[in-house]
Amino acid sequence: MNKMNSLSGNPYIVKKEEKIIIDLIPLDEIFEKYTTPLLIFLKNRIRDNIKMFDEVFKEEFERFEFFYSLKANYLSEICEIVSSEKIGAEVVGLPELRVALNTGFSPEKIIVGGLYLPLDLIEFSIKNKIKEIIIHNIEDIDKINEVAYKYSTVQNVCLRINSGKYDSRMGIKLGEFSLKSLKKTITKSKNVKVTSILSHFGSQMNNIDQYKRHVKLVIQNLKLLKTHDILIENINFGGGFPEATVMPKSQLKKIARMIKSCLVESNMTNKRIFFEPGRYLVGDSGLFLAEIVNVNEDRWIFLNVGNHICPKFARCSLRFYNATQINNPHKFKTSIAGIVPTDQDVLAKNYFFTKDPKKEDKVIITNTGAYCLTFSNRFPYPLPKIVLIEGRDIKTIFDPQIDNDFSIG
Ligand SMILES: Cc1ncc(COP(=O)(O)O)c(C=O)c1O
Q1: Cα→Cα distances 49→16, 45, 220, 227, 337, Å
Q2: All domains of the chain, ordered by start, with CATH?
Q3: From the CA of 87, how far away is ligand 1's center (Å)?
Q4: What mean pLDDT comes out for the span 237-265?
Q5: Does 369 contact ligand 1 (Cβ within 6 A)?
Q6: 182: part of which helix (H) or strand (E)?
Q7: What is the pLDDT of residues 351-388, one digit of tens each?
Q8: Which residue among 12, 289, 341, 353 is least enclosed by CB atoms within 10 Å?
């Protein structure tokens, strides 16, 4: 009988007859052709994740849209896969906006905005007729209004409201004073229409209660806006979902149902619902192939991938497998470090790994598709080669020997 297991719950990384297969390619074949470190992306996984997200939320909400948050991974090839699924994009600055437009996202499905809205970003967005500009400060409405007036248009705007979580500094805090000032600014800004509110509550949110607290806060803010005759059509709940392999469909469904019932309870079912997921769509589509470069007697192993390219800041749900000894039990506590020359370069502590890891053993690190590249730096090693796998096809999308850099600017 064939025994088939997926690694870290990813159906595109499976162990079949004691061998690992990545989509349809045996891992051994990849090691014959490529050196480590190698960053792999799985095209089909991105497509599956998009379909799953769409299916679950469409079941609850008739008027629902979602926008891929490019900051999770702005590689053109990844953006092209996402845009070909006809969903929207959320970008924070001009370089990302250019990538989104160049990779096939249509402007009427692009939401633009970050903490900082420079004039050139506003102007480029308005010229390109993008869907909405997100504002974090009331004064930004004036800036957008001026540019929209210059181009004789009315620009839709989304208010980023403060999520009310801990001491979050991001977004507008709605109080008596700010509401009055907002109302005044909106009334005089004839070239701006406030259509949406956005609240993003955090990253890697696994617990349904976190989502519930968030939804209640958003509803509270919508009610406050209504008391000042500021009527909002669309609610954007931001992102914050974990990797799709970490959040099963049943949990995603529970979240969708909970949001729906909170909105029904508050008579807000007429609103359009938006999300801006990043990690959920691409997080588990990425994996690193690395190698052990050193083993200490106190069960510390050193990999040729470190925090410079697999940063803590990315908050990935990292899973480690000894590919060379994949048939041995992974149940011995091992600490895993990278190669940046600092004791802080720790990838995992007391992680269950094989009993006797050896220098040159190959290691698979899963769930590295989101934020690794965005938060990466070049200290102090060359960038890895990056490949895209689809079925039996493997295509190099970044080669540090030939290409300049994958950063955008
Ligand atoms: C406003 C906003 N939207 C969406 C996202 C995407 O979040 P995630 O990748 O956790 O889904 C972020 C991430 O920081 C964000 O700040």
Answers
A1: 23, 6, 31, 39, 30
A2: 4-43+283-398 (2.40.37.10), 45-282 (3.20.20.10)
A3: 16
A4: 97
A5: no
A6: helix 176-188
A7: 999 999 999 999 999 999 999 999 998 777 889 999 99
A8: 341
